[in-house]
Write a structure and sequence with these properties.
The chain contains 12 helices and 8 strands. It is of the alpha/beta class. It starts with 5 loop residues before the first helix and ends with a helix. The mean pLDDT is 96. Bound molecules: 3-methyl-2-oxobutanoic acid. The site of 3-methyl-2-oxobutanoic acid (KIV) has 10 residues, from strand 6. 3-methyl-2-oxobutanoic acid (KIV) binds next to strand 6.
C-alpha cells in the first residue's frame, strides 16, 4: 500500500469513507496501528498525561514531542503521521513556522494546533506548504481539564461554524472537533471541504480520533465519549503481580528460560575454581 498523504485523506471524504485516527506515542504501537490500516497515526500532546505523568498537556515541550515523534516515525510506513504542536510553540506565525519546520524535519507529515482563532498562524504555515490540522471545540491546552460540551447555544454553535470555515479558508487541511454537539459537528462536516475528525462529537463527522490508552483501557480518565475495547490496565497489573509472586516463590525462571554450558567445559571451569579460588 502506498504512503497515505493529504490528498488520500481528502479523497476518503469525497468518497464518503470514514477516516480513522488514533494517538500513538511509541514504536511498537506505531507498527501495530500502521499494520491495522489506521489512516492518521497521531503523536498527540496527550502523551504528557498518558505517558509522561504530567498534570496538564501544557507541560509538554518540543523536546518531549520530538522524542516520541522519532519513535513513532520509525514504526510508520503507510499511515499519515500527524503531530501536535505543544502549548506556547505557535503563539505567533513566525514561532509556529520555526517549530512546525522542526517537527516536519523529524518526520511528521503534518502538524495539529489548537485554537478557534488561529487563522493567521494557519495561513503562514499553509503558505509554506505545511499541512495543518486545526482543532476546535474543547481545546485542552487552553480550556484545561474542565471538559465542557461546546456548541449548545446559538452563539457558540454559530461561532464554532464560523471558526471552522475561517480556518479552512486560511488553509487548514484537516480539522479536529472535540466535544462539539453532534448537530453542530454535522453542519461543520457538511459545510467544509476538508475532513472533519471528531472526538466526542458524534457519528456524523468524516472520521474519528481516540486516545490509544483509552481504547486499551489504560488510565483512570473515565470519559463518556470514549470506549475501552480491552482492559489492559488490569491485564498488565495481573501480569506484574504474577511475575513478582513467581520470582519470590522460586517458580520463575524454569528450565525453559535457562542456558547451559557443556559438561566437559563446566568440569574444566570447576577444576580452575577449585585450584585458584
Ligand atoms: O493530544 C490529543 O490526544 C488530542 C486528541 C484529543 C485529539 O489532541
Amino acid at each position: 500500500m502506498a504512503k497515505k498523504d493529504i490528498n488520500f485523506l481528502h479523497s476518503k471524504k469525497q468518497a464518503d469513507q470514514k477516516l480513522t485516527m488514533l494517538t500513538c506515542y511509541d514504536y511498537p504501537t506505531a507498527l501495530m496501528e500502521d499494520k491495522a490500516g489506521i489512516d492518521i497515526v497521531f503523536v498527540g500532546d496527550s502523551v504528557g498525561m498518558n505517558v509522561l505523568g504530567y498534570e496538564s498537556d501544557t507541560e509538554v515541550t518540543m523536546a518531549d514531542m520530538l522524542h516520541h515523534l522519532k519513535a513513532v516515525r520509525r514504526g510508520v510506513t503507510t499511515a499519515y503521521l500527524l503531530v501536535d504542536m505543544p502549548y506556547k510553540t505557535y503563539d505567533t506565525p513566525e514561532q509556529a513556522l520555526e517549530n512546525a519546520i522542526t517537527l516536519l524535519s523529524y518526520g511528521a507529515d503534518g502538524v495539529k494546533l489548537e485554537g478557534w482563532e488561529k487563522e493567521a498562524v494557519v495561513r503562514t504555515l499553509a503558505e509554506n506548504s505545511i499541512d495543518v490540522c486545526a482543532h476546535i471545540g474543547h481545546n485542552p491546552q487552553f480550556h484545561g481539564s474542565r471538559r465542557l460540551v461546546r456548541g449548545r447555544t446559538y452563539s457558540k454553535g454559530k461561532s464554532l461554524i464560523q471558526s471552522a470555515l475561517a480556518l479552512e479558508n486560511a488553509g487548514a487541511k484537516l480539522i479536529v472537533l472535540e466535544m462539539v454537539t453532534k448537530e453542530i459537528s454535522k453542519i461543520i462536516t457538511e459545510k467544509l471541504k476538508i475532513p472533519a475528525i471528531g472526538i466526542g462529537s458524534g457519528g456524523n463527522c468524516d472520521g474519528q480520533v481516540l486516545v490509544i490508552h483509552d481504547i486499551l483501557g489504560i488510565g483512570a480518565l473515565a470519559l463518556t465519549y470514549t470506549k475501552a475495547y480491552e482492559d489492559y490496565e488490569n491485564l498488565t497489573f495481573q501480569a506484574i503481580c504474577q511475575y513478582k509472586q513467581e520470582v519470590e516463590e522460586g517458580l520463575f525462571p524454569t528450565e525453559a528460560q535457562e542456558f547451559s554450558i557443556d559438561e566437559e567445559k563446566l568440569a574444566k571451569v570447576e577444576q580452575w575454581v577449585t585450584e585458584n579460588l
